[in-house]
Amino acid sequence: MPATTSSSAKRYAEAVFDIAKSQNSFDRWGQDLTAMTRVLDDPELSRLLSSPAVALTVKEAILAKALPGLSTQAANLVKLLLRRGRFALAPQLDGYYRRMLNEYRGIAIAEVVSAVPLNDDELESVASRLSAMTSKKVIVEPVVDPSIIGGIVARIGDQLVDASVKGRLEALKKRLAAQ
Predict the structure, then answer these.
(1) What is the mean pLDDT of residues 39-43?
(2) Which of 87, 133, 142, 161 has the most CB atoms lying inside 10 A of its own CB?
(3) Handedness of CA 119, 124, 127, 133 (dihedral sign)
(4) pLDDT interval class at 178 (50, 70, 90)
(5) What is the pTM of this model?
(6) Tens digit of pLDDT for each residue in 52-87?
(7) Rounded distance, CA 66 to CA 26, Å?
(8) CA-CA distance, 17 to 29, in Å (whole number)?
């Protein structure tokens, strides 16, 4: 994806976040952005909305019907994105918005990889330890990958915590090779 696309989505998300913050409408904007993103999950709608052969007024009518419950401001954003040929940015815009909202609320999302599924108590324990490390509330997104053999690997943003058997074995291999 070109950098301009991501930077455009980020600018839109920043503007939406500022509006949501000023009006304390974070959750409403979140719902509206999710609805906009889901429209693009439909391949037929996505094709119609991206086609230059379909008139702008037809695209606006399609989206008005597909997104009946949008707030007035979100409906205006939809029209703006359509007129600028950027409605396909909706999923990226939604992603940036959610990251900004989580940051604002002091929430971190952690992808936690384990060799076997973790039960609720284990997930809570991992979340608690990661919260202590980051000073944020951590929401764990569990992933199972048997190749790590045992332990866990947690990724929070740019931070990586590798407490897996595979990681320890690789570290040991490097130390032995260096001797």
Answers:
(1) 92
(2) 87
(3) negative
(4) confident
(5) 0.78
(6) 999 999 999 999 999 999 999 999 999 999 999 999
(7) 22
(8) 8
Tokens coding 124: 């809570």
Q: Is the CB of residue 112 less than 8 Å from the CB of residue 126?
A: yes
Residue 107's closest CA among 139, 154, 85, 83? Answer: 139
Average pLDDT for 116-139: 94
List, in sequence order, every residue forming a beta bridge with 164; answer none if it has no partner.
151
Distances (CA, A) of 101 to 34, 47, 94, 126, 155: 14, 30, 10, 23, 19
DSSP label of 116: S
CB 40 within 8 A of CB 91: yes
Give the tokens for residue 76: 């205006």
Interatomic CA distance for residues 106 and 27, integer angstroms: 16
If DSSP codes are grouped into helix, strand and coil, which group holds residue 160? Answer: strand
Assign a CATH topology to domain 3-102: Peroxidase; domain 1 (1.10.520)
Please say whether the beta carbons of 93 and 13 come within 8 A: yes
Task: Please state the domain extents for the chain.
Answer: 3-102, 106-178
Concatenate the DSSP letters of all residues of 79-118 into one string.
HHHHHTT-GGGHHHHHHHHHHHHHHHHTEEEEEEEESS--
Single-letter amino acid code for the residue at 78: V
Q: What is the pLDDT of residues 21-35, one digit of tens each?
A: 999 999 999 999 999
Ramachandran bin of 58, using left for φ above 0, alpha for ψ from -120 to 50, beta for the remaining angles: alpha
